[in-house]
Here is the input.
Amino acid sequence: MTRRAVPGPVALVGAGPGDPGLLTERGARLLRHADVVLYDRLIDPRLLTRCVKTSARTIYVGKEKPGGASRDREQRRILDLMARHARAGRRVVRLKGGDPYIFGRGGEEALHLSSLGIPFEVVPGVTAALGAAATAGIPFTHRGVAREVTFATAHAATGGAAPSWKALGQLRGTIVFYMGTYSLPRVAKTLIASGRRPGTPVAVVERATTPRQRTVTGTLADIAGVASRAGVRPPSLVIVGDAVALRPPLDWFSARPLFGRNVLVCRPRDSAAATIDQLEVAGAAVTSLPCLDFRPPASWRAVDRALRRATSRDWVVITSPAGARFLAERLDALGLDARALGTARLAAVGAATADVLRSSIPSIRPDLVPASENAAGLVAALGPRRIRGRSFLLLRADRARTELPDRLRALGATVADVPLYRSIVPRPDRGVVADFAAGAFDAVLLTSGESARTLRRWLGRSPFPERTRLVTIGPVTSEAVRALGWRVDRESPAPPELAATVIEALAHP
Ligand code: SAH
Here is the structure.
């Protein structure tokens, strides 16, 4: 008997208002398992790169222009795609901006699936209004100020009855208008005509929850002019009501030290995540331009031999997060686990390296994580007594500097220095390089001499942009940067201090 493909449940997932961190855990899990992802225009591409497996199909189904017959045609295409892939037995996620059931036609999509007998589930998302409330600092309800909140749209093309302006004008609480950017003059005028006080505070919040969030405020009487002079564009929300006036002391979001700043991070992918996170928490818009990438060695022979004999060593040393990842992957491929290291001690250079080791090799714990992330730091942390006469296995990049093995040998150790991975120069994102050359970034972060030299090559004839502050980690990188004729504005002592150093570099140029 041939087995018929069973339609898998389709998940309608709310992606949240913009910041990828506001996706729910349930949504992230469904994305990780999805075979097909249908996504909208306002979805942050990082959700797709971070959460979706590489073998999955991601299909853009965003609608460019609101309203009109073409929109309905596009909506029918979405319904067909969902049904077709589900019936083929694929796990389908329909990823929608904000919440699926707030002005997103999610209801239509669920009704369609239901009518076809295709199982589905709905995962709520943080709707744009709630994102904007939190990040623009507008508590929608507040004792003595607003006792109700209404979500509305002024948009005519969303189907159904026109907004009941008379009733809206009678409300005294907070009203949030979706899709209101272009109809703002009419919204304001109509609310006043239906009874709302012209002096009622109004905020327009553009790109809420993202590093490019912008808020303009006024009153019903003047907001149309204010927003038009400021050039407010979609996506934005119009928030009407006295709660808007609570905002100044609650505006934590744009008060963060790096808010509105553009920072370029040239760290390799393996070690960039923690740095990017730190900078984003401080409010920066971070762009990543890895100047270095890693590949497995041409042959695993030397590594495999070294791993099989690792237990005869006194120390095994891993010097980078990429090294930790490759070690974990290779042990796994060989069917080995932490016991392969036997009684050898494990040193991890850098907290990020130690983190990757702990999270990727079950029950492994580095014996030594020196505070200073370089050869000198490791040697100092070990101390001469633990070096002389001892046997070290260094698992590192193919083109790693010789300082560490040189120093260990000079102190009387035997050292096997085995290339665990190759470092390569990736293809640059030309658009980002051009933006950098044009001075689009307030600061750039360089964490190795090699990255600096690569960036210099990518820049070609363009000089280092005058307005961009240059931040490095550690004296070795700084020296390499200066050798290129570039000025180091600030040097961070270690990765945990990076964001603080960038903040300082921008506060006191
Ligand atoms: N389902 C979505 C809304 C889709 S309608 C949700 O729950 O948020 C699209 C409208 O949502 C836009 O016109 C805008 O008014 C609003 N919107 C979406 N993302 C936004 C953001 N980051 N900032 C401000 N408004 C946003």
Observations:
- The chain has a mean pLDDT of 92.
- The first strand starts at residue 10 and ends at 14.
